[in-house]
Predict the 3D structure of the following.
Amino acid sequence: MKFLKLILIPFIPVYAAIVSIRNFLFNKMFFESKSVNAKVISVGNITLGGSGKTPTVIFVSNLLKSENKNVGVLSRGYGRGSTGYQLVSKGDGILTTVDQCGDEMYHTALECKVPAAVCENRVEGAIRLIEETGINFLVLDDAFQHRWIKRDVNLLVFEQRFLLSSDFFVHKLFPTGTLREPFSVIKRADAVIINRKFSEPEDIPIKRKKYFKDVPVFTACYKAISFIYLNSKQEYNLEEFKGQKSLVVSGIANPFSFLNILRQTNVDTTNKMIFKDHKKYSLKEVERIRKKFYTSNSHSVVTTEKDAVKLSNYSKELDDIDIFYLKIILVMDDEIKFKKFLLNKLA
């Protein structure tokens, strides 16, 4: 893999030029960012997956909902098996399947219970969602690069582990590295959220600190709440899984943090099946999970909430296996300060 990345290094300037020209055209208003009839909050990143955008979208949506704001969520619906505009929820139930809207939006709509939709064209999607549901606050998922829609607040999310990495390739632009855009575009954000997930807080390395000096920086982490039994949605304390020999199933961008918190909870993670991000489970994978479960003498299957919604499509095939997902939430280290910042920006 490293050899392949080395081969792709000459393509970085080409990609960088495309990104630079595109941003220049937006900055000089040759490309127009269109307004919609709602206050728009964008949550995005400049890396390829795994920073924690979806938990941040859920946190922001619930925060606005707690302030009695009529809020909805819009995403492009990455990994879905449909195209065009799809109304996912009007706030009182799910109107589509996880395959039609994507695992992240399905999960978000379930968690927030707010109007939600998916659409590749954010402007079209926003206009239709606003017209159909009457929302006047809109949270955009993964929209930092989608500059066609004007936003009132631009939130940029980083994973702390990414910022601390010393890997030569990690901080390079695509296709060699994981950066969608260079660090210099941080100035486009109204605020940065550094998600340390389940790790202790650490300072931004000096060589990257200069990019954050002119933007408010907030820090956040994940908090594991409980294990939820997939079939009945019954909740179990984390302590009840201590020492349990489970088969860990994960199909998310960076499973490191998920495995880390399971180990901190003293769940035995020796037996695991790690799939690619946004894994679309088929009967073939389900049979592999069944086989691994029985050959490893596991007590249960433990998975993520995003994976759980997709595995629920195979309830008949997995009805003899106890499947639990780890319930986590995003917690701001200074929620009061962040809430004040966000509401002031939206006033």
